[in-house]
Amino acid sequence: MVKQGTSLQLKQVQRLSPLQIQTIKLIELPRLELEQRIQKEIEENPVLDEVVDDTEQEDGTPKKISLSEYNNDDTPSYKLYVNNQGKDLKPQYNTFQVKESFHQSLENQLGFCRLDERRHQIALFLIGMIGNDGYLRRDTESLVDDISFKTGIETNEDEIEEIIEIIQGFEPAGVGARDLRECLLLQLEPAEEDESEARTDARTILEDYFDEFTKKHYNKIISRMGIDEERLKAAIAEIRRLNPMPGGQIDDSYSDQAQQIVPDFLLEIKDGELVLTLPKYSIPELRINKRYADMLMDSASGKSKGDKEAVSFVKQKLDSAKWFIEAIKQRQNTLQRTMEAILEFQHDYFLDGDETKLKPMVLKNIAEKTGFDISTISRVVNSKYIQTHFGIFPLKYFFSEGLVNSEGEEVSTREIKKILTSSIEEEDKRKPLTDEELVAVLKEKGYNVARRTVAKYREQLSIPIARLRKEL
Q1: What are 118-123's contacts with CB under 8 Å, separation 24+?
Q2: Which of 92, 308, 396, 432 is deepest in the core (most CB within 10 A)?
Q3: Which residues in 176-326 belong to E strands, given as ranges?
Q4: For residue 467, what is the DSSP state?
């Protein structure tokens, strides 16, 4: 039988305070989400107040305003407006109009087709299965099962194909295709009038030599079709005018496709010196409404159980407000110190934006300069942007690994990638540079890089292999 008893044990446990937890959460928020988080806190916490104007005194009580001020017909115009903005006005963006979505457009076109109710429901289901890129990627057999299971309509593969053919006649051309080849062929359907030789050749290439075309085996296509290089060029130009993503022609969302970026930092050059600021924009200044908090405490100062619960509630809200305000201050301080460390590390680069002056830099470098943990630096860098005199950049842009050149100097991998990009842009497109040849180019410039490293950087730059870069 196990003997039971009690004992004391001393254990050291590291716990995060509510303030630390709050600060960590706020640091990783980008500016727009921070604005929403602050507004939510103001709405939920009655003792947290926003400083919007000068109509209140320092203790939170409203200033006394005489009614006679409003009886004067000659009131100056400046008294008729309220300016509750900070010193940094938030940039105004153009409004946008909500467009008809991609799937709504297809459904509207379906309304002009003479289909019975049953086939109309099948067509609606098929339209719903089309992706935003315009492709229908489910095979016919699976679609039959899906329609039967989800709508209760019994159908067959022949009927599905007939309805898909109807949908493929909708705008934009190419919609409802099962793969790229079918999408392009739908856009090259024979015209009623006499069509060009290039269009006919383009259709032949897609129908009979699509594999050779995608692999850019142009010599094989010329030999098998019995055409010259000029005719092949014209046919390829015709294919390149087609849209491989027909769904992208119509906006399928109710928001701007281009992301609006509000920078967290503003960098300017004044008298040859870098000046960093954290613009306020619409982030309000917060304070605890002491007058309202005292009023709540006075009303909850009784000794009944309900009064004690009210006192506990008010104290909880007061603590929460204090922690939140302090967390905002610590967030600003952390962001400021981190960005100042980055500026110091990359000082030469920020003067003129020359990428060749961008030094290799990792999170550990900035953590050592600031004294913060690497995880804190990672949170600061995430989704934060800086506006400079040469553009707006995410903070992640300035971090890169390093390589040692032939002179023993450490250079950023970004510089290597820039050389690769320029070399590929200037290459002979009839005979593109292979990875081995790119290694030789870099070696001539003083960078000893392995072939697999060149391949990795090329893939990171979304540049295809030499064979797929070949042009006539």
Answers
A1: 118/153, 119/159, 119/163, 121/151, 121/153, 122/147, 122/151, 122/153, 122/155, 122/159, 122/160, 122/163, 123/163, 123/166, 123/167
A2: 432
A3: 265-270, 273-277, 285-288
A4: G
Six token digits for residue 233: 């060029």
**Beta carbons of 311 and 297 less than 8 angstroms apart:** yes
The full length of the chain comes to 472
Could you tell me which of 166, 208, 206 has the C-alpha nearest to residue 185?
A: 206
Q: Which residues pair with 386 in a beta bridge?
A: 265, 393
Contacts of residue 179, Cβ cutoff 8 Å, sequence gap at least 6: 135
Cβ within 8 Å of residue 125, ≥6 positions away = 146, 147, 150, 151
Comparing CA positions, the residue from 159, 124, 121 lying closest to residue 140 is: 159
The domains located in the chain, with CATH, are 265-398 (no CATH), 402-469 (1.10.10.60)
The DSSP-derived string for 82-147 is -----SSPPPP----PPPPPHHHHHHHHHTTS---HHHHHHHHHHHHHS-TTSB--S-HHHHHHHH
